[in-house]
Amino acid sequence: MIDLGQVLTFLAVIETGSFRDGAARLGIAQPTASQHVKKLEAALGYPLIERRRARAETTARGARFLPFARTLLRIADRAQSAVRRGGLAIGASSNIGVYLLQPLVRAFRSAQPAIGPLDIRIGTNPETAQRLEEGEIDIGLMEWWDGRPGFAAQIWRYERLVVIVSPEHGWARRKSIDRAALLREPMIGGEPGTGTARLLQRAFGVEATALNVGLQLGSTEAVKQAVRAGLGISITFESAVRDEVRAGVLHALRLREASLSKPLFSILSDSLGPDNPAHRFDAFLRQGAPPAPA
Q1: Least buried of 64, 235, 239, 279, by fewest C-beta within 10 Å?
Q2: Which residues in the chain show pLDDT less than 50?
Q3: Which CATH fold would you assign to the domain 159-261?
Q4: Cut 0.90: pTM above it
């Protein structure tokens, strides 16, 4: 068995460069630090540290162990935080977290005033999935789910998508466009993993390679600025551009052949306790959830 206290000492020695300084960082005696490392080496079966020019450095085996040592302590810290954590930790992909989540959280708090502290983590879809896997969040709100085992996913909302262009674009006076016109225009992509290409493939049978993607940006906000600058068009949540369309700095269009909408998922771990408030938040999200737009 690997002892986390011994792993902590190993890292302290390597990061400070000596047993003396590593022991001082941890507030233990130098002989104790040496014993910790010896016991860790015995548990792993290989020497991990050697002295080179009066400095403690990893052996080849120690260098292999080093990233795992840091991961072990990071996971242990997350585990302690999860056990201590009260209330509800919500993870959301960027578009959901920025444009949809806040009013929902406010309404949920009003309906459930005794829920305790709320912790909201906003990131990319892959980051949110990883936080679910690592137990950092109780519920994930995402734009896709890959069906990995150990989790239950439900659709809680369908969000309408629109094509956006700058006010100077040739389509700025139109209300809709057709598929052929869309495919000819240079398109600006948003956050990787949001699945717009997959959605167009379902709607039109369009392969990702058929899309004329000129720029790939990291967020919807960056996409909106690029479209305003006339660098191309994009497809985004209708809710994400409502203010800009109202102000006249962007123009939104519909597609004639199909009504594009994206299912949004709420994901819970199968191991989540029945008393976890994430179940109540999930039920709150899905109560009266609208059907898929026609």
Answers
A1: 64
A2: none
A3: D-Maltodextrin-Binding Protein; domain 2 (3.40.190)
A4: no
